[in-house]
């Protein structure tokens, strides 16, 4: 008798567990997304995209999760859709137990601005391009002249990274000009002269030599002595008097 009662109790308990699990699963399936929370984590520094921009992208792709069943909300698709935007570097989308979808977005970091007949765009810190924004201008070195995109994302990108990591040259180099033969000139902030870099080959060594020239020679002759300082020849600095 006791064994029969135990079997009945165990059976009822099992049925109860199955019922509760099914009930809550059905409840979760029918639960609708009640809100979408968007956080652009670096919005204080950069303003390439806004919350409204991101919501618009999702609505256009029919991926806005609000009022959709939570189990039908595909966070991977949301992330992939937003990453198509060339202003965005990283997206993390996830669901919360309270029935919300949260988005954390990081924008790209521009390190160079290209303004040329071949295009007008930024190069970011990962070596890709990003479009110019109407609402925000990044204060980065400007490259003008005959700039092919291949040059922009290779040699110019490496040069811009160097400037970004070197306070002295980042403060000194204001503009970069590329001639049709790919010869490069630098326009400094201090001094009324042009710096002929030549090619980007050995540019660190060339700038080390120029900095030494600034420290040793310029204090004796003054910033206005020369109109052109050429670094294009290996281990030489050739100056043209004004």
From TrEMBL:
GO BP terms? cell division
Q: What are the UniProt keywords, alphabetically?
A: Cell cycle, Cell division, Membrane, Transmembrane, Transmembrane helix
* Listed transmembrane segments: 6-24
Q: What is the name listed in the Swiss-Prot or TrEMBL entry for this protein?
A: Cell division protein FtsQ
Identify the species of origin: Parabacteroides hominis
